[in-house]
Amino acid sequence: MVKIIKGTYGRRKGSVIVPVRAGETVELTDEQEARLVKLGVAEYVNDSDGAPAPSSSDETDEQEAPELPEYNDKMKLPELKEIAEKYGVDASAMTTKKEIIAAIDAAREELPTVGGAGDVVD
User: Fold this and answer.
1) For residue 33, what is the enclosing H or E element?
2) pTM of the entire structure?
3) Cα–Cα distance for residue pair 29/3, rounded to 1 Å
């Protein structure tokens, strides 16, 4: 298990890419974890005696990953700004729904895929 310390990691959960942000932990394959640690964007999470934490894949698999919310142009501006934040978009200076929706759409397209070269986003 690793803790993301820089940026955001996109983890595939079914057909959805779920962002794992700095400060959050995630359990991946040994190779994926080693790669993220080597890139300097994650650190291993250890138990109290310094050994890597035991695998808890059952616990991790049973937890429901938060899904990114749906949105549409019928929503109010404050609602869209809140959703934009969940996609990692700073919409504080945006003044139109069209502008916010375009930014969210762009963020969705840029969500990384797990295991690919672009799975770490700063």
Assistant:
1) helix 30-39
2) 0.42
3) 14
